[in-house]
Amino acid sequence: MFKRGGKLIILVVLILILLILNLLLGSVKIPVNDTLSILFGDRSNEIFSNIILKSRLPQALVAIVAGAGLAVSGLQMQTIFRNPLAGPSVLGISNGASLGVAMVVLMSSSLAGVSLSRMGYVGDAAISIAAIIGSLAVMALIVYIARKVKGNVTLLIIGVMIGYLVTAIVGVLKFFSSEEDVKAYVVWGLGSFARVSGDQMLLFVTMMILLLPLSFLLVKSLNLMLLGDDYAKNLGLNVSRARTLVILNSGVLVAIVTAYCGPIMFIGLAVPHLCRALFKSSDHKVLVPATMLAGAALALLCSLVARMPGFEGALPVNSVTALIGAPIIASVIFRKRRESDGE
Amino acid sequence: MENRATIQLKNLSIGYRNKSGVKEVTTNINASLNSGELTCLIGPNGTGKSTLLKTLCAFLPKLGGEIIIDGNPLESYSDKEFSKKIGVVLTHRPQIQNMTVEELVSLGRSPYTGFWGKLEKEDREIISNAITQIGIEPLKERMIQTLSDGERQKVMIAKAIAQQTPIICLDEPTAFLDFPSKIETMQLLKRLCRESKKTIFLSTHDLELTLQIADRIWLMQKGSLFVGTPKELAESGNLSAFIEREGITFDKTLLRVNIRK
Questions:
Q1: What pTM was computed for the model?
Q2: For residue A24, is it within any domain?
């Protein structure tokens, strides 16, 4: 069929189509002509240009970079842990973000007497910062442990255990919090590409655009790690350093995305599988760009579905990613099993 | 060209270090491996064959003594330099999906390629030669997961050839193979020794095959290492001590294991 380069181009085209659909579709009908003229600087219709420029376009941009970041992070995790079920959340890094957010949202009213859930913009910034601090703290812990323990499985189990621990702490915090604050926390946990706007959105997108290319620097290490630690070492790779760098890269991406969009599930888990099946390759020179593009496309699709007429933005992104992601993973794994049975 | 010593072990002791202390498996190992020779490491399970092999490949730290590789102590090599000295083929098979034989063999060039792992024209030639030398051209485009154990073993050997190391260490390369594949693999390794003057060192349980094909045998038994050609070890009685038991005898002159029926 198509060569690998061709498939990458198809993904880019798909992203462009989805981006346009994201701009065109929504609760308010805005004609194509008006949308285009707004994009080219026409501000004559204030309501329309507000919807396009302050809501739909930022949301689409956030979805693109968040999807790309989560997907490539999932790919890196699956490769270094040689585990098809590894994903961005597996090392407890997104749980760390949840803990940070829970601390701030749930404890602020009881400790400092202010309810962040009612503070709007300042509250949002505080939540993002708390999430970044929480996830980076967990990541620092994981990196520290990664340098101590040798086996990947040990590290994986420790990550999962940290996840449970954090969930438990959050549970306790919830128990002692006001209903309103709990609701604010739950809403954050549902995930959204629309939560960030204005300057924060620009900051988020800029950070991601700077961070995403760093993933390409680890391509050779990731390819060697496919062979297992011993073969990788024998081929000249400093395995523990490479592993630390991959966890750092992957962890920072997840931390930032989670901080601004909440814990988005399934994209990081599903997209690498989708790309391996689509590109019939395990070469990270192909897979890193492929997962970024496919992650961006899938996130745009999810954001579109969540805004479909009838749902009206009420549908949380996480429900949509799971609805689309879970069947993808199941079918990819099912097909792989059938292939290997057939041989 | 004279066969020369590529690896020298002096008073080497090997084993494991853990929380509760040091567990020595074998001590006072003095031996050397020569280029152009196929050396087979044999001995009962649990005597430390695997530990010795892992120590030589720098997967495990030694407990004492010296390992000299191509004139320099093992510790003096960086990961990168070491990867140009010893190529390994391990028992466990990597669980890789969606990677072609050619791509896997190409990974053998990693120590020589740059930051991005880009293959130059020269690398491609070396890879294609390695594939030809091992005789796996027909498999080139196949995915690793579709290969038989024997084919996969050959691919890993081709990877080691592409790595262009003077020394190749193999951990039980014949373990999971059927009988014809065992012989084929051993013959292939023997040919590599002769043609490219490589030092090949492997551990194995396939005794009769080893006796017929090995240039030199390292026999690990009861905490000691006995080194010699199959004939020498037969005459010294070491092989008989290793092989003979109730119902099994060893013919020293014909180098044959006889089983009483």
A1: 0.88
A2: yes
Q: Provide, as residue numbers in chain A, all residues whose Cβ is less than 8 Å from the Cβ of B59.
A: 230, 233
Interface ipTM: 0.91
pLDDT of residue A339: 59
Is the Cβ of B115 closer than 8 Å to some Cβ of chain A?
yes
Which residues constitute the domain of residue A170?
12-342
Note whether residue A42 is domain-resident: yes
Say if A333 is an interface residue toward chain B (CB within 8 Å): no
Residue contact A236–B83, C-beta within 8 A:
yes
Residue A16 dihedral angles phi and psi, to the nearest 5°: -60, -45
Chain B nearest C-alpha distance from A261 (Å): 32
The pairing of beta strand B199-203 with beta strand B38-42:
parallel
B45 touches chain A (CB under 8 A): no
The reply to whether B22 touches chain A by the CB within 8 Å rule is no
Residues of chain A with Cβ-Cβ distance to B79 below 8 Å are 233, 236-238
Query: Does residue B119 contact residue B167 with C-beta atoms inside 8 Å?
Result: no
Q: Are A234 and B83 in contact (CB under 8 A)?
A: yes
Average pLDDT, chain A: 84
Does the beta-carbon distance from A285 to B79 stay under 8 Å? no
Which region among A30-34, A313-317, B32-36, B87-91 has the lowest average model confidence (pLDDT)? A313-317
Q: Is the separation of the CB atoms in A264 and A191 below 8 Å?
A: yes
DSSP, collapsed to helix, strand or coil, labels residue B147 as coil
CB pairs under 8 A between A and B: 71
Please report residues of B whose CB lies closer than 8 A to that of A217. 115
User: For residue A7, is it within any domain?
Assistant: no
Residue of B245, A133, A45 whose CA lies nearest to A53 = A45
Summarize pLDDT for A138-169 with one digit per residue, the tens: 888 887 887 777 677 787 888 888 888 888 99
What pLDDT is recorded for position A240?
A: 87
Determine how many CB atoms are found less than 10 A away from the CB of residue A268.
33
Fold of B5-85+167-259: Rossmann fold (3.40.50)
The DSSP H or E segment spanning A57 is helix A57-80
Where are the domains positioned within chain B? Answer: 5-85+167-259, 96-164
Is A66 within the bounds of a domain?
yes
CB atoms within 10 A of CB A278: 18
Q: How far is CA A240 from CA A76, A236, A245, B163, in A?
A: 15, 12, 9, 22
Our count of domains for chain A comes to 1
Report the alpha-carbon distance of residue B133 to residue B130 in Å, rounded. 5
List the CATH number of the domain containing A130. Answer: 1.10.3470.10
Closest CA to B221 of B202, B242, B243, B244: B242
Pairing of strands B167-171, B199-203: parallel
Comparing A13-17, A177-181, B52-56, the range with the smallest average pLDDT is A177-181
What three-state secondary structure class fits A197? coil
